[in-house]
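User: Hello! My lab partner asked me to get a predicted holo structure for this protein. The small molecule is adenosine-5'-triphosphate, SMILES included with the sequence. Please write out the structure tokens.
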Amino acid sequence: MQEAMPLLEVKNVSRYFGSLAAVDDLSFEVCQGEVFGIAGPNGSGKTTAINVITQIIPPSKGEIFFDGHPIHRLKSHDICHLGIARTFQQPTVFETMSIADNISVGGTFGKKGARDGAAEAEICRLLDFVGLDKDPDTPAKKLIVNDKKKLMLAVALATNPKLLILDEPCAGLTTVESKEIINLIKKVNDLGTTVMLIEHNMQVLMNISDRVMIIDHGTKLCQGTPDFVCCDARVIETYLGRNSVKGGKTFAGAE
Amino acid sequence: MLTKSSNKMRPVYIVLVILLLLVPLIIRDDYLMHLIIMTCVWGIVATNWNLTLGYGGMFHIAQLTFFAVGGYASGIGAVTFGASPWLGLLIGGAAAMAASLVIGLPSLRVKGIYLILLTYAFHNGVSELVNHFRDYTGGSMGLLVPAFEAGSVSFVTHPSYYYYMVLPLLLFSIISTRLIEKSFIGKALMATRDSEVLASVSGINPYKYKLVTFITAAFISGIAGAFYASYLGVIGPEIFSFSLIVNGLGMIVIGGMGTLFGPIAGSFIITFFMEVFSSLEDFRPILVGAVIILALLYAPNGVVNYLGEMLAKIKSRKLPGQARESGE
Amino acid sequence: MESLLFRGIILGSIYTLASIGLSLQWGVLRNLNFSHGAAITFGAYIMWSAFNLAHFPYPLAFVLMIIFAFILGIAIEWLTVRPFFGKNDTNIFIGTVALSSILGQVYFLIFGGRQKFLEPMFDGVIKLGSLRATIHEIFTLVITFITLIIIWLVLNKTRIGLSIRAVSQDQVGAVLNGINTRKVYSTTLGVATILAGIAGVLLGPIYYVSPHMGEAPMVKAFIIVILGGLGSLPGTILAAFIVAFVEVFVGISIGVTWAPLSLFIIMVIILVFKPEGLLGVSSRKA
Ligand SMILES: Nc1ncnc2c1ncn2[C@@H]1O[C@H](COP(=O)(O)OP(=O)(O)OP(=O)(O)O)[C@@H](O)[C@H]1O
Ligand SMILES: [Mg+2]
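Assistant: Hello! Below are the structure tokens for the protein in complex with adenosine-5'-triphosphate.
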């Protein structure tokens, strides 16, 4: 799998907020078909990195290629049409719209030129797939946080992406709920979608990822297979030294 | 579910339209007719404003700029170039559309307070332009705009003729709002209103849909402005006044932002409110302002929603079991 | 030439006072107040009444104006900001717009539509070389300077000032540190309204006092805070002088009606190409 061609190539990308370099000369590749994990302490620039990839925030410097296309000058919606979908760290849905309408937004606008909307069967399939057991006519604002996360995932999947980027999908969930989400991610990946996953819990991340990248202060600390990354001294220092409470324990658990 | 309920409502709508068509036959009082016509004019402006503001989440005040541009364009067309007021309607609509491009192309790239300020700047800028080119616009005196005529019949003595002109425009505004709401444009618009970021990563180009809606709404408002100028016979710089912005916003807020009939209810309420309290003269703007603030505080979803909730409450009291079922 | 420069400086001072209140308010509340113009008018009318109706001496009238303006600011916050803050920004906008129209009409009812002349504290003209200046203009400069110093002292040396700065830097952090944000919000609006009132008092003798006299300066204040970068006080001061100079020089060289038009063009250009303003930090997206 490591030999596969890169689906996403990030080359020397930086993003500054005033004098703060939230992402600092970052380069990495995500290969076709893999699960690419990203971890790093709070404020290390993980979210900013994917905001830059999806052009929620334009990069200050650098180039990004997806499927051979340069995407660092495109707009978010064009990037979606090329096949990148994402979720947000904060559960974000179209609050005033129904569950079905939420999903059909992804289906209607996710592909270039498509206007007919997602068929009812497709909506039911996605709801079933993400395990959201609610009446499709329920307004999204009535959902609890966990269900909003599932709905957000369903909206992303409705765009039929080649690459799915997930920003801490398990944050704030119970162990059982996390397991459910992780299984879901595995299922998505098995169906051929490349996944890029940001996750704080090292154990979870090491389990599911084919490759892992650790970032700190917006730069890459190390990258490789989970086993390789586990043994990297700098990672141990980052997680045990500066972020011992959160990362340390879970990192030790991965051993 | 939605289609079912609108099917059920269809006969109601048809009866309503027939009733509206019969209004001039029932109401014989010219002044009352005048008020109804003004309600319709403001209803058109508020409905279109609500399309962009309530459905599209674009918080702007350009709707009155379009209204004014429409009025002035048809006025200048008539006075300087001798165009008939009928042609003026088209000129007004086209000019407002052009203005909406000039204003919308830069303005809709920003949002929030920036959008408000930018459209406010354009509103004042257009008003300054009117002041600047006083040879064409009449400056502070304004322009005298000729009335509509059909053959040799002037509409001035026939308020009902005006009514039959403005009513289709109002119905058209409502229908176009409804059609946009139900189409993929409306879906994109409402998604963008709810979360612009999620909308754009879900493949929606927010700018495109905002602009399309903005221009559509401007076109109809421009026609309404041309109608207004010719109906009142005069268009002057008061059309840019702050109090009209207040009234327009008040109509939307009091009626219910983002609802189909709210703005019309609001324009009805404000127009007749101003009339009922006409003896209070200069106290009226204070009352209108106070009503707006009270509405914001105590009925933030507008009277239409308020009545809807009341109705639902009464219903659920009568048929508890059934209501619970449909509420699920 | 010098006289133009001088007029630019005088106008710039008044615009500074008219706009830093807005900038301060943006910093703290992330909102702008459309009754700011009515607050400018308020200052002028209170001053006029205290001076011409109650026959108070000028300094006393001035103090009275400051007290009333502070109360008005707190009322504005209580009525149109507090109920909607953090929930619905558009309602704050509509609320302040409605309040502004109420206030304008109240002025009209009390004082009538006729323009009133607000006498300056000092009458007369002095010559400084080739420059002829009214003493009121010099007074304007002095008052602006003193006000700015007081504002600086309040923001940097007093408890409430430090709270205001803390809240504008980090809302959540301020709450966590036990700052009473409610108090900060109403004080901020009180201070902003005082500043607007002072601007009104200084404008009174230059233009006339009328129910809607504050609206044009408010529009300019909006342009200024945008140009300077929302929430940036140095940017606001810089922008106030830029706007004043543009107005004076365009007015003289091309024509008076072009001055406002050129300002709108500047504002549009700024908003489209650099919405964070000259000295503003880029605003948070998403
Ligand atoms: N829009 C913005 N404006 C200014 N600073 C920002 C913005 N977004 C992020 N930052 C800053 O950039 C840095 C990186 O933030 P980012 O959200 O990318 O971190 P993260 O790795 O996702 O952290 P977490 O684990 O808490 O989600 C932080 O210091 C943050 O304060
Ligand atoms: Mg993050």
